[in-house]
């Protein structure tokens, strides 16, 4: 059985991900207490694909999730973990727009003279702490500046990929939008010559041949590529030894359109020869 465990910060898009999985043929269960997961899998033994959402509402049982994952894997099931997150500012804006309360907002703080509910910011930060252990071992998607359609596409790309010991995620981004929260390694390529200042190249992207030719002819770009390639080649085996399932390499330039896209495409082509690779461009819709 293919089992996908979904978790994440409230408001980061778990419902969107579950809808994608349901459309893809997964039997989906939302907000399942982790202690019931083995029983659920036994009950659904005839289902080929099952997706289960586990979140902070089951905080007292989350410590057993990783052990349960290992038990299911040893039983022959293919188990993956997906974690969705977003910046605090983005989450606050989403809760304000929907006018919904945070799941942890009903926890009480007992002071000397009164009993108060947690503020929204306090709820978000507490939830990050509660779910930190799960996030560390899952495939993480930062939904801060993603549209619903982008998130649907990225989730679909993930489940369409064959299961492998380690998947490399190469992701381009714009520094002016902030560093993605899902990045394990971040490389800055803003010092490279910028195609933006060539009027003929400005409307193009790092995937287009004229931009590729321009950067291929820049010695600095080739030196940067060689340095990043050497670093990753040296350290990727250590992540495999550490039983990591996903490694996200984020590469940023100013606008996320030319240099970072070029570098992500070039590196991903190299590693596709020997590793399982996913590619994302946060600013290319």
Automatic annotation (TrEMBL):
Annotated GTP binding lies at 55-58
- Name all RapZ-like N-terminal domain ranges: 1-158
Residue ranges of domain RapZ C-terminal in the record: 167-284
Q: Which residues bind ATP?
A: 8-15
What InterPro entries does the entry give? P-loop_NTPase, RapZ-like, RapZ-like_N, RapZ_C
Q: Does the keyword 4Fe-4S apply?
A: no
List keywords of the entry alphabetically.
ATP-binding, GTP-binding, Nucleotide-binding
Q: Which domain of life is it from?
A: Bacteria
Q: Which Pfam families match?
A: PapZ_C, RapZ-like_N
Could you confirm whether the keyword ATP-binding appears in this record?
Answer: yes
UniProt xrefs under NCBIfam families? PRK05416.1 (NF003828)
Protein name as catalogued: RNase adapter RapZ
What organism is recorded for this protein? Undibacterium rivi
């Amino acid at each position: 059985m293919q089992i996908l465990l979904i978790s994440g910060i409230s408001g980061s898009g778990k419902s969107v991900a579950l809808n994608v999985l349901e459309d893809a043929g997964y039997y989906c269960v939302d907000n399942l207490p982790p202690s019931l997961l083995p029983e659920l899998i036994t009950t659904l033994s005839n289902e080929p694909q099952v997706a289960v959402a586990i979140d902070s509402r089951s905080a007292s049982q989350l410590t057993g999730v990783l052990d349960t994952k290992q038990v299911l894997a040893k039983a022959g099931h293919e188990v993956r973990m997906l974690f969705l997150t977003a910046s605090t500012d983005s989450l606050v804006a989403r809760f304000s727009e929907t006018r919904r309360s945070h799941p942890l907002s009903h926890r009480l703080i007992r002071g000397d003279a009164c009993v108060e509910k947690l503020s929204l910011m306090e709820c978000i930060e507490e939830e990050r702490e509660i779910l930190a252990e799960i996030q560390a071992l899952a495939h993480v998607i930062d939904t801060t500046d993603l549209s619903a359609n982008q998130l649907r596409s990225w989730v679909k790309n993930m489940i369409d990929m064959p299961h492998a010991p380690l998947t490399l995620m190469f992701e381009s981004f714009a520094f002016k939008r902030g560093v993605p929260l899902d990045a394990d390694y971040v490389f800055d390529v803003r010092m490279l010559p910028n195609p933006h200042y060539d009027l003929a190249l400005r409307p193009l992207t790092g995937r287009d041949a004229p931009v590729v030719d321009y950067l291929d002819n820049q010695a600095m770009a080739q030196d940067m590529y060689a340095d990043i390639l050497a670093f990753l080649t040296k350290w990727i085996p250590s992540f495999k030894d550490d039983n990591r399932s996903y490694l996200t390499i984020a590469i940023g330039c100013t606008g996320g359109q030319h240099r970072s896209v070029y570098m992500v495409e070039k590196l991903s082509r190299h590693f596709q020869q020997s590793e399982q690779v996913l590619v994302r461009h946060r600013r290319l819709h």
